[in-house]
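ugh ok fine here u go
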Amino acid sequence: MFEGLKKKWGVSGIRFALIFCIFAIGGSLTGYLAKKFMPFLNIEFPVIYWTAYIIVVTIFWPFCVLIVSIPLGQFRFFWEYEKKLWRWISGKNPGKNKK
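structure:
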């Protein structure tokens, strides 16, 4: 699995380890910040709370990962990764076959 990711991303060794650390730290930071943010929404119902939490995490994650990637020197990788991810989500993927 790791070898496949290394090949897909075109990275090796230390850079691959840095990328994984950034995903982990960025994800943890996202969860931490989302938990700190949720009381401001003042939501009492559990279903609505967790739905809002998922939305907040989805919004915070790209920013957290980019911020964490700067000091570790991987900003370019994550900037390109997020652009590709958002193109895929929006359906504007240039690699997709058009009919």
